[in-house]
TrEMBL record:
Keyword Magnesium annotated: no
GO biological process, one term: L-histidine biosynthetic process
Similarity comment text for this entry: Belongs to the PRA-PH family.
InterPro entries: HisE, PRib-ATP_PPHydrolase-like
Name of protein: phosphoribosyl-ATP diphosphatase
EC numbers: 3.6.1.31
Sorted UniProt keywords: Amino-acid biosynthesis, ATP-binding, Histidine biosynthesis, Hydrolase, Nucleotide-binding
EC class (word): hydrolase
Pfam families: PRA-PH
């Protein structure tokens, strides 16, 4: 049977890694050097360039899910998360904003949410 998403304390580990990543991205945004930091380089190009990377990395993750190893899937998922965070920073949308969006959905089935949409 496939492993669960949160086996062996992995949710705490992921939360810590994501919080660390957010702090690093903030630091690069404030004083990063585009000649030595990918994050600073990407942020200097603006939100559209960050969006392009999210798009590209999302496609790579999708391809990995379809035909690559578990390690490759995890690595591509990390790329997507990192680039999504950089894009959020570029737009000035905080991790708190994302947490609030996720919290609002807790306990609501995606099927019910879709059925309840206006229009
Ligand atoms: N998590 C990441 C991270 N994930 C991916 N990347 C970079 O994103 C870039 C993606 O470039 P490409 O599209 O050319 O590469 P790719 O899609 O991996 O490869 P291809 O298959 O397209 O060839 C590479 O330079 C990766 O190193 C990252 N760069 C930085 N981080 C984190 O951000 C921190 C700060 O990094 P800097 O800002 O570079 O100091 C690092 O310590 C990490 O914690």
């Amino acid at each position: 049977m496939a492993r669960g998403m949160t086996d062996l304390g992995s949710s705490d580990r992921l939360a810590a890694a994501l919080a660390h990543l957010g702090t690093t991205i903030d630091a690069r945004a404030k004083e990063g050097d585009a000649s030595t930091s990918w994050t600073a380089k990407l942020l200097a190009k603006g939100p559209d360039a960050c969006a392009e990377k999210v798009h590209e990395e999302g496609q790579e993750l999708a391809e990995a899910v379809m035909k690559e190893s578990d390690d490759r899937v995890a690595s591509e998922a990390a790329d997507v998360l990192y680039h999504a965070f950089v894009a959020l920073r570029a737009r000035g949308v905080s991790l708190n904003d994302v947490a609030a969006a996720l919290e609002k959905r807790q306990g609501i089935s995606g099927i019910d949410e879709k059925a309840g949409r206006a229009g």
